[in-house]
Write a structure and sequence with these properties.
Blueprint: H1 3-16, E1 17-19, H2 30-34, E2 40-44, H3 50-58, E3 63-68, H4 71-84, E4 89-93, H5 96-103, E5 109-115, H6 133-142, E6 143-153, H7 156-167, E7 172-174, H8 190-197, E8 203-209
Parallel strand pairs: 1-4, 2-3, 2-5, 3-4, 5-6
Antiparallel strand pairs: 6-8, 7-8
Helix pairs in contact: 1-4, 3-4
Length: 211
C-alpha cells in the first residue's frame, strides 16, 4: 500500500469498513451501520474505487456497500471517497459469496453491481469466473422484488456466459432483449478504456428480480 492508502486505512477503516470473515453470525444490520434506513446497493469488486466513489457520490439516497478483496484498492477507494465528500459508503473486505450467503437477508437488496470482474480468459480457468448458475441464484435470492443485477464486461464470451446463466435463472428477468444500453451514468473504467484500445466491445446486462 502507498502511504496515502495506509493513512486512509488508519483514519477511516474503523468507521467505514468491516472484514467479512470477522462479522458476527447472522445478517449484517445495514440500517444500524449507516445510521439510517435506505435502499442498499452492493457493488462486488470495487477495484481501485474510481467508479465506486463516483457512483456512491452520485446516489446519496442509497446505502452504498462495496465488497473487495484487495487491500490497496479499499485504501484507494477511501481516499477517493474522502476527496468527494462521500458519506453514504461502507466497505467490506472479503469474499462476496460468503457475505451474500451468511450475512445478507433474502429479498433485501435494492441492487447488485458487478462491473468488469476478473475474466479468467483461458478456457481451462472459466470455472473460476464468479458468474455461475449458483451465483446467479444466490444474487437473485438476496434481491428485493424488482431489484436489479447489473453486470458489465469487455470479454465477449464472458458476456455471453453472463447472459446465458442469468437468463436461465427463474427468479431473474432480463430488462432488455439481450444487451442493455450502456448507461451514461456508469463511469468509464481504466479496464474499459484499455478494452477499447485493444478492440474489445464492452457489454452491459441488467436483470431484475421477478415480483
Amino acid at each position: 500500500m502507498t502511504v496515502g492508502q495506509q493513512r486512509a486505512w488508519d483514519d477511516h477503516w474503523p468507521r467505514l469498513g468491516r472484514t467479512v470473515s470477522e462479522l458476527p453470525e447472522g445478517p449484517l444490520d445495514f440500517t444500524e451501520w449507516f445510521g439510517r434506513e435506505a435502499p442498499v446497493m452492493l457493488e462486488i469488486g470495487s477495484g481501485m474505487g474510481e467508479t465506486t466513489s463516483q457512483l456512491a457520490a452520485a446516489a446519496p439516497e442509497l446505502n452504498y456497500v462495496a465488497a473487495e478483496v484487495y487491500d490497496p484498492g479499499l485504501g484507494q477507494l477511501m481516499l477517493r471517497a474522502e476527496k468527494l465528500g462521500v458519506e453514504n459508503l461502507r466497505l467490506l473486505h472479503g469474499d462476496a459469496v460468503v457475505l451474500l450467503t451468511e450475512h445478507v437477508e433474502p429479498d433485501t437488496l435494492h441492487g447488485v453491481r458487478l462491473f468488469f470482474p476478473d475474466p479468467w480468459p483461458k478456457k481451462k480457468h472459466h470455472k473460476r469466473r464468479i458468474v455461475s448458475p449458483s451465483f446467479a441464484a444466490l444474487v437473485a435470492s438476496r434481491l428485493a422484488p424488482g431489484g436489479t443485477f447489473h453486470m458489465a464486461t469487455d470479454w465477449e464470451n464472458y458476456a455471453e456466459q453472463m447472459l446465458e446463466v442469468c437468463s436461465a435463472e427463474p427468479a431473474l428477468r432480463n430488462r432488455y432483449d439481450g444487451w442493455a444500453p450502456r448507461p451514461e451514468w456508469r463511469p468509464v473504467t481504466k479496464f474499459e478504456q484499455r478494452a477499447d484500445v485493444e478492440g474489445r466491445v464492452s457489454h452491459d446486462l441488467i436483470f431484475e428480480k421477478r415480483s
